[in-house]
Amino acid sequence: MASIFGKIRQNLVGEGKTGKYLKYAIGEITLVVLGILIALQINNWNQNRQLEKEELKILRSLQESIKINIDEFNQTFDAQVRRNRSSQEVFFTDVSKQPLKYLDTLLRTNITNHTFDPSTGIYNSMINSGKIELISNDSLKNKISRLYDRVKDYQESEDEVTEYTKEHMEKSFINTYEIHPLVLAGHRKRTDEEENRDRIFYDRTLKSQEAKNIFILLSHKMSDVMTKGESLKSEYHSLVTELEKEIENKK
Predict the structure, then answer these.
(1) Distance CA 111, CA 169 (A)
(2) What is the mean pLDDT of residues 104-126?
(3) What is the pTM of this model?
(4) Where are the chain's structural domains?
């Protein structure tokens, strides 16, 4: 191709057609420039296409990870809701008149801690590698960052409840509770003697001001878990919906 253009130039120069030669030279340069621009455009298109594929891969990985975390969060938060409800029952109702099995469950529910421990491997990898910048939707990117901040905020409230439970409720349980561990765990039935003794124990303990104070403070701390948990649940589902839309648009 180059030799053909060269012969044409030589013929034009030899025939003294300088004007035509200049026009031809300009045309030839234009063709070369256009060729380079087209090649660059194709290269940019290929690069952009590759980045879009990488972005789609990241979005799908995030979606899968978040759905798994939502399932775990729902289980943990449902347990927290049950605990919050039972802690309020202690000072809002006369629970001492309830069946002993009910009171056993109430006690177990209030000394059992629950913590949400989501998988953050994909998110951390994205942050550390800078691949989060591949997400072109700024609104979605901000939602992702905000979600993990809210997870940490929620976990801090859970940790506060756990610390309070260990420091106050568990110590109180160890020092004052007289119920046989196998009975409390539901592994065997009470004897008649235990029925009478445990009824007196529950009546005395749950009506005490100390127990009420412990449960009032627990309920106060649990209300923070409830508020942040509901907010986190809403944030999770909103993000999943937006991820699904973005993935569909990128296909």
Answers:
(1) 7
(2) 88
(3) 0.74
(4) 70-250
